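Response to reviewer comment R2.3. The reviewers asked that we include at least one raw input/output pair. We reproduce the pair for UDP-N-acetylmuramoylalanine--D-glutamate ligase here without editing.
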Amino acid sequence: MKRLVILGGGESGIGTALLGKAKGFEVFVSDNGNIKQNYKDVLIHNEIEWEDEKHTESKILNADLVMKSPGIPDYVTLVKKLIEKGISVISEIEFASKYTNATLIGITGSNGKTTTASLTHHLLKQDLDVGLAGNIGDSFAKQMLDHNHQNYVLEISSFQLDGIKNFQPHIAVLTNITPDHLDRYDYNFDNYIASKFRIVENQTKDDYFIYDADDPVIENRMNTHPIQSKKLPFSLTKRIENGAYINKETIIITIDNNQITMPIKKLALDGKHNIKNAMAASTVAHLLKIRKQTIRESLENFQGVEHRLENVLRINKVQYINDSKATNVNATYFALESMDAPTVWIVGGEDKGNDYKELFPFVNEKVKAIICLGVNNEKLMNAFGNMVDVIIETQFMSEAVKVAYKVASAGDNVLLSPACASFDLFENYEDRGRQFKDAVRNL
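Raw output as returned:
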C-alpha cells in the first residue's frame, strides 16, 4: 500500500486526504500549526491518521508521495529533505487531476483570477455540469469525491502550479502577470513569470490558451518560450482574428469564424479590468459551445465576487466599498482607476516588497484622505504623506472605519483596497473584508 503524506491540514489537505484514502493510499496528515476542529472531525470520522503543531519526520520521510499545502514554501528544511530523498512533492491540483476525465479549465494570473473563474463558472453552469474549485470554495479533490463533475473551472495560484508535474488543463487562462509574492521567488520576477506559465507546459496542440495580449510580460515570455496549444488572445487595443477584442464599445469574440458580440454597457461589472475578465470567461464559454444568448444573459446578471470592489452600504450619501481581495498594488490600481468620486482610501497590511509609484496619479487625482491600517505603516507614510492633506495611522478595522466616517463628505467613496497581504492584523483577506463590512454596518 502506497503511503501518501499530506503537509498542511487546510481545505486542500483534507480534500486530498479523503480522495487519497478512497484511492487506496495509506494516508497521514501533518500540520505544523493548528488544524481547525471541523477538519479534525472529518479526519477522525474517516479514520485518517493526523498530527498538528508538529511535523514528525520519521512519519513523513517514509512517504511514497507528498502533497504539500500551497502555503508551505519549497525552501523549508523538511521539503528540501523530501526532495533530496527523491520523494515526489506535488500540489492538490496535480494529485486530484490524475483521477478525473473531466474537461479542466485552469485559470491563473496575478489579478482577476477569482472574478474570471467565478464568472466562467456562472457562464457554463446553465448548460453544463461544472464544478468550481482550486483556490476557491471546496477543494478540487473533495468535489471529485462528492460530485465528480464532467467539467471543472479551477482557480490556480502560482504556488499550486509550482507543485505540478503532469497537470494538463484543456483550456488554460492567464489573466495578467504583475509582480506579486516575490518573497517566495527569491525576489526574482522571472521565477514568478515562469511559475505562472507552468499552466501551459503540458498542453498539446489540441488544447487552448486564452491570455491578455495587452500584457507586455506575457507577450515577451511567449516570444522567447513558444507554446504548443492553440492561442486565443484578448485585447482592449488590438484587433484579434481568433480571440476577443473591442470594436465601437462592443466585445467581439471569434473562434474558427464563429462570432459572438456583446455591448460593453450591458456588462454587470464595471471597470476596464472587468471587460478583460468578461472577455476571458466568454471565450471559454464560446469554446465550450455555450449558447450565445446564455453567455449574454449571464454577463448581464453576474453579481461579482465578495471582497472584490463589493458595494457594502451607502450611509449619509457616502458609498462604502470592500476590496479586501486587493492584496497587491496592481489590484489596488484597478480599484482606484474605477473610482468616480473623491475617495477616502483605507490601505496597508503586510507589505510584500511593494512599489507604490504606479498609484501616484490616481492618488493625486482621486484620493482626499488616506487611512493606514497595518502593524507597520512607515512605507505608506513615506510614499503618500505629501500627496494628501489627511493621512492617519490606525491599528484596528473598527477604528479605521470610524475615522473614514468622520473624514468623508456626501458624495464621497470610502474604499478598503489594502494593496498588501492581511496576515499582520487579520486571519486572511476574507476576515479583513468581513471585519470592514461589520464595522460599516455598526456605524
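The mean pLDDT is 93. The first strand starts at residue 3 and ends at 7. Further pairs are available on request from the corresponding author.
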